[in-house]
Design brief:
The complex is a heterodimer of chains A (472) and B (339). Chain A has 3 domains: 232 residues, FAD/NAD(P)-binding domain (3-Layer(bba) Sandwich), CATH 3.50.50.60; 147 residues, D-Amino Acid Oxidase, Chain A, domain 2 (2-Layer Sandwich), CATH 3.30.9.10; 61 residues, no CATH class. In chain A, 26% of the residues lie in helices and 23% in strands. Chain A has 12 helices and 22 strands. The chains are: A alpha+beta (472), B alpha/beta (339). Chains A and B meet through helix 8, strand 17, helix 12 and strand 22 of A and helix 4 and strand 9 of B. Strand 22 of chain A pairs antiparallel with strand 9 of chain B, so a sheet runs across the interface.
Chain lengths: 472, 339
């Protein structure tokens, strides 16, 4: 490596923010033939809102009627089903059950069915208590009835964006990590974005168009570059509790609560990694990066899970996590196309973003097309399958030559870890490695493998597990 | 890729022992010395020996060898003794499923295998409860671990996960952690204990003085603070007073829980401690299976190490290696009688 200044990036489109939305948009526009750079201020993708969610592929049955959100969810849903096999992305066809636990909740059913019908999700079905408990015999007997939503599925929330951006990269998309956009100037044709890296190196990126997918910092980016923002992010934290794998067999469907005006409520859901999780809470907070957990919230979730699925008391908790949704003053996506400034802001992409991202990317393409801006669509784009870490599909440890199993709880192998450190989008930090391989995500949380993992990742990350050598 | 790797290579044996810690090796040695030859010890780590491998301090092995050894010395002696008898210890081999009638599914770097054992002894031991399962409030920062991870890092790799941690808990293992810290040049800021007295009995609970770390009784963690790495913890006492301790890590010690998920994912039943249910012979709900050592809570009062624990404060028992050794031997003798 020479110490020469990096060449100035000069592209058609700069996508700012490497969350699920940024990754999907970078993929779509790269496949459309645009030259794209994705700019991310953290060392890896998914550092903000996209790192913690409930990993559900939504049909959009309960989305706001006639909304952009609904359109993006449905388009995103369909595209995921089309592309998931070619990208080796998993799909767990669980279905969801909206369970009523009280009479008043049951009274909401007709409203929910009507909304779903308006959203063109027509396969919802009412289940009596008997039918419900036949399907989910481990639910508490206080369950009264349910609406079945057969096509709500579970996916891998981290491999999906990784696959989107990886495919973009193998088809020519550039990426720059640990790089923050601090300002920009538009000369009527082209943006010159000022950037600053983690180690305080200033730089510039030139791009004809800019897409703000900065998530929790979307309003700040608009402020910093455009001088104004249409919305203010009101970070809303959701905490989750993850039960150990024996819990997975207890519940087959995603168990949804009846939503209230304020929140979609707490979900009990199988994870693609073979666990069962419960969450989220919904607490507004000031901090945009504060993904801390709170004992009383976790206890509330745990108690609620046991109340609804009593057999869970026989399963231990593995992990807890929190995600922060980039909510705004309004319960809707805040998408704005400043045509005269070649700037698109994708703001307020709430908890539906995982499903909707591919649809949002289609919407972005449409916005360009409406202005007559087209590129030379790649005729034979490369696919880029990502390694599978879903529990129900063949895992790396099932193929010989893996050298050693490093993380025993999640059966993550040395071969997988080395691959993730050297892939198209190598893990940029320990969190990124966890999301790519499952290391330390299991029941012992690193009791057995931290030492070995530290050794395997030596000098790879700015923040390592160990902080130094022993005295001796 | 090895073309045989995806085929199920099937093997059989009289007794398969899962786990090459003190319990498993003791059982293997007992069986072999009694003349049983076709036994296999399965170990998922690259090396046999179990947890003592990374407890680099005494006292280990007094009952077995009439000598005071460090953990690694003790583990080495156990392994040598087993190998000398010609016992087959298969490392880097993970049992992925406990099937009915002793059919074990194995993952090895060479491929998947099936092992049919007449009897299986499960000796997978115990581990500490991580921070997450204790629902501790605050940031999820780097620098938080259990004693097991600390000791593996210090004794096996010569690395330290923090320089000035707060230690949570006052079980035997907590003091073992203090010894590890001293050896590694780590300077604990404080040791905190939720109860009004330490879990272990005098004189051990004075040992924190040796390490110049203060003991805060009746205190628990209120909040973990740190962006990327821990930089402080808030502790709260029984009156609700909160104080902040600057530190760069937290060591959660003790609160042992059986390493029994393999059992829980199988047809075997478990008890309220998440251990496999066993009868007086150590036999599980499927009579092909036995369990021994720290995987099960030894009902024998001696097994609770109560010489070490202050009255009423004994946590979920974790048995020192000598007791595991004896238990492995006893259950092996029961297995012998059943064959």
């Amino acid at each position: 490596m020479t110490s020469k200044a990096p060449p100035i990036i000069d592209v058609d489109i700069a996508v700012i923010g490497g969350g699920i939305v940024g990754c999907a948009v970078a993929r779509r526009m790269t496949l459309e033939g645009a030259s794209v750079v994705l700019v991310e201020k953290s060392a890896d993708i998914l550092a903000g809102a996209s790192k913690g969610n409930s990993a559900i592929l939504h049909t959009g049955f309960d989305a706001p009627n006639d909304s952009l959100e609904h359109e993006c969810i449905q388009n995103g849903y369909n595209e995921y089903l089309e592309i998931h096999e070619s990208l080796n992305l998993p799909l767990l066809k669980t279905g969801a059950l909206l369970v009523a636990w009280t009479e008043s909740e049951e009274e909401q059913f007709s409203k929910i069915l009507k909304k779903a019908q308006h959203n063109k999700v027509n396969d919802l079905q009412l289940l009596s208590k008997k039918e419900l408990l036949q399907r989910e015999p481990n639910l508490a007997n206080s369950a009264r009835a349910a609406i079945e939503v057969p096509r709500e599925y579970v996916i891998d929330p981290w491999s999906a964006p990784l696959a989107y951006l990886s495919q973009a990269v193998v088809n020519g998309c550039q990426t720059t990590f640990s790089t923050e956009v601090t300002g920009g100037d538009f000369d009527g044709e082209r943006w010159t974005l000022q950037t600053n890296t983690l180690d305080n190196k200033k730089g510039i990126i030139k791009a004809k168009h800019v897409i703000n997918s900065a998530g929790l910092y979307g309003d700040i980016l608009d402020q910093d570059v455009l001088g104004e923002s249409e919305f203010t992010i009101k970070p809303r934290k959701g905490e989750f509790v993850v039960f150990d794998k024996p819990a997975h067999a207890l519940v087959k469907n995603i168990i949804l609560p009846i939503p209230t005006e304020i929140t979609k409520g707490v979900v009990i859901f199988p994870t693609i990694f073979g666990n069962l999780a419960v969450g989220p809470t919904a607490d507004e907070q000031e901090g945009r990066s504060d993904a801390s957990v709170d004992q009383k919230n976790l206890e509330m979730l745990y108690d609620l899970a046991i109340e609804k699925v009593p057999a869970l008391k026989n399963v231990r908790v593995n992990a807890t996590y929190a995600g922060i949704r980039p909510a705004t003053e309004k319960s809707e996506y805040r998408v704005r196309h400043l045509n005269e400034k070649n700037w698109i802001t994708l703001g307020g992409i709430r908890s539906t973003g995982l499903t909707a991202s591919l649809g949002i990317a289609q919407h972005v393409q449409k916005l360009f097309a409406e202005q007559g801006i087209t590129f030379n669509r790649l005729s034979t784009p490369l696919a880029h399958p990502v390694p599978n870490i879903a529990e129900h599909l063949p895992r790396d440890w099932q193929k010989s030559g893996y050298e050693e199993i490093v993380c025993h709880c999640e059966l993550a192998t040395k071969r997988e870890i080395i691959a993730a450190l050297n892939s198209t989008l190598p893990a940029g930090n320990l969190s990124g490695l966890k999301r790519r391989t499952r290391v330390t995500m299991g029941r012992c949380q690193g009791f057995y493998c931290s030492a070995r993992l530290d050794e395997l990742t030596e000098d790879k990350f700015v923040d390592s597990i160990s902080v130094g050598n022993t005295d001796e | 890729m090895n073309k045989h790797s995806e085929n199920n290579n099937t093997d059989s044996c009289d007794v398969a022992i899962i786990g090459a810690g003190p319990t498993g090796l003791s059982a293997a040695i007992t069986l072999k010395e009694a003349g049983l030859h076709n036994i296999i010890v399965i170990e998922r780590e690259a090396e046999a020996g179990g947890v003592p491998r990374h407890c680099g301090h005494p006292p280990f092995g007094f009952k077995e060898y009439k000598k005071i050894l460090t953990g690694p010395q003790y583990a080495k002696k156990n392994i040598e003794r087993a190998l000398k008898l010609g016992i087959k210890i298969q490392c880097k081999t993970t049992v992925t499923k406990l099937g009915e009638n002793g059919e074990l599914s194995l993952a090895t770097p060479e491929g998947l295998k099936t092992l049919n054992a007449k009897k299986v002894l499960i000796a997978t031991g115990t581990r500490e409860t991580p921070r997450s399962a204790q629902f501790v409030t605050g940031d999820r920062a780097l620098g938080i671990c259990n004693t097991g991870a600390l000791q593996a890092m210090v004794y096996l790799k010569g690395k330290i996960p923090f320089k000035r941690p707060v230690i949570v808990g006052t079980e035997i293992v907590s003091f073992s952690a203090l010894l590890t810290c001293r050896k590694a040049g780590i300077k604990p800021v404080a040791m905190i204990e939720e109860n009004d007295k330490p879990s272990v009995r005098w004189p051990i609970h004075y040992s924190h003085y040796l390490f110049a770390s203060k003991l805060l009784l009746g205190n628990k963690i209120n909040k973990v603070i740190g962006d990327k790495r821990v930089n402080a913890v808030e502790v709260i006492n029984k009156n609700g007073d909160i104080s902040t301790l600057e530190c760069d890590g937290i060591l959660f010690t003790g609160k042992f829980t059986p390493e029994s998920s393999l059992v829980q994912m199988s047809h075997l039943t478990i008890d309220e401690n998440f251990s496999p249910t066993v009868n007086a012979l150590g036999q599980c709900s499927d009579p092909s299976y036995y369990a021994a050592g720290n995987l099960i809570q030894l009902s024998n009062e001696e097994g609770r190490n109560n010489i070490f624990y202050a009255k009423g404060n004994a946590p979920q028992a974790v048995n020192v290696s000598g007791l595991c050794w004896e238990h492995g031997r006893d259950i092996a003798n029961n297995i012998l009688k059943s064959l």
